[in-house]
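Hi P.,

Sorry for the delay on this. The queue was packed all week, but I finally got your sequence through. Input first:
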Amino acid sequence: MNTLPGLCALLLTLGCASATAEDWKLAKVEDGIKVYLNRSPTSQYQSFRGVALIKADVATLSHLQENLTIACKWLYACDDMRLLKVDGDSTFVYLTTALPWPANTRDMVLKVQTEQAGDGSVIRHLSAVNGMEPIVPGMIRVEQLQGVWQMVPKGERETEVTYQLQAEPAGDIPSWLANRFVIDAPMVTLKTLRAVAERQGGHAADSDLP
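Then the structure:
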């Protein structure tokens, strides 16, 4: 999306909500990907931040986010993703998730607002929007979510990618699953995105968005 998935400008300056740099604690390092967690005083669910260095330029990574069919394949737990509308620099996306049993399927409407900096960085701010799509029977609607995707060029063909998220998943989520999600979501997402981007070899994917 020229603004996308947009997935997030996953919130930044890079503090999800009110988190400061000191709040984040390194929880896992694997294959060069770092996952940090933060406990919010206003939520029982932890925020996560994943950071990875990917051998692809910002344009390639942006296109992989903007093509929603492809984006849903590398975004952890994504079941379906479709464009609702584009309004200026904001894109609205409907997303459904397929979390492991015993969690029920969730859905949400995401507003993704994209900023581009003079150094070539791209930040996508992501937030849940309520009342835009009717409630679907059998789905649990996620109404509180904010996040950031940040992509900062670190060389001619290398980008530091940060994926950060704070969400209230609604409904009942077993503690073991919630604890697993905040590690798996950034780790699997960034690992898969890196594999797709580096395999693509710099050839940008077609975008579903105008």
